[in-house]
Amino acid sequence: MPGGRRQCRYRIAGCGAELWSAGAAGRAGSRGDRCAAPHEAFVAITLSEHGGWVFCCGPATRPSDYCVGGSGRHGEHGETGPPGSSGIELTATGLPHFDIAGAQRLYTDTLGGVAQSLDGVTALVIAPDGPLLSVPFGVLLTGPAEPDALASAPWLVRKFAVADVPAAANFVSLRKIAGTSRASRPWFGFGNFRPITLAQAQRSFPGATCADSARLLAGLPALPYTLKELDAARQIMGAGTSDELLGPAFTVDAVTRMPLKDYRTLQFSTHALLPAELHCQINRRSSPPRRQSSRCVRRDADGRSYSRPEFGR
Fold it and tell me: What predicted TM-score, i.e. pTM, was given to this entire model?
């Protein structure tokens, strides 16, 4: 058996085992100690070199009848990237260009094959794989859309409350400890990222072999709309205007000095750099302690942790 096919089968088997574990845990016990909510579904996606499989389980799914969908077009996503990847430069409308066709195609090739099995579901937890880790599934399109009418487009987030986890095992373990936080404050936000210079980036990625990683880090542009995102989240969570670190105040040193355990939810609205995008690991010894943070991770002090990749890089 070719190595690629053998590896793919191993990954499918592992995905199926984790999915069974998540589904069994979600159904076990009384309603109060279920991992999954009554109208919640869990979807795991595994990719091969030229295709992929989507496994899902919902409130009424049994271990013996998980729905499985397949796609033979994974290679296209590796070439085109996630929706919005054509850039975040503003157009004449004041907004960046959005890849409508890409968002529709990606939905069809991933969740489209199991869409009927999600009827009646209002919350969707997704465990993506490979390059799909950088995809914000909430902005995939479940149907046609017009460039000048995106406000009424059929975004996936209009149909489901969408969350993502690294794997089924994380979904189960994080749900078991949810609600045990002793944090007294609801929310704290970080954002309005200020771009760093190439010289600063080279301190984190020194040497000629890491030059590409340094240029990538230094080339991350400002994200002015994160201020609106943070302001909306702060109001929803009932936090005060002082519960934020923005602009020049948003540094690694400031973040590490924060009493983060006092907050139930932390929101980092900034860029995300996945390990696959960097050829070198950060040299923490030579990294300056007071530089802008360029990671994007949300961590809930109740035990929930998930990434929010910036999809328009």
Answer: 0.67
Taking the CA atoms of the chain, what radius of gyration do you get in angstroms? 20
CB-based burial, 249-264: b 16+ in 10 Å, e otherwise: ebbbeebeeeeeeebb
Tally of helices (H runs) and strands (E runs) in the chain = 9, 10
Q: What is the mean pLDDT of the chain?
A: 76
pLDDT at position 134 over 50: yes
- DSSP string covering 94-114: SSB---HHHHHHHHHHTTGGG
State the burial class of residue 286 (Cβ atoms within 10 Å of its Cβ: 0-12, 13-18, 19+).
exposed
Residue recorded with tokens 């040193």 = 253
Strand partners, 85: none
Looking at residue 123, its pLDDT comes to 94
Look up residue 189 and give its two tokens: 């936000």
Which residue pairs from 150-157 have beta carbons closer than 8 angstroms and sit at least 24 positions apart in sequence? Answer: 150/98, 153/100, 156/107, 156/111, 156/124
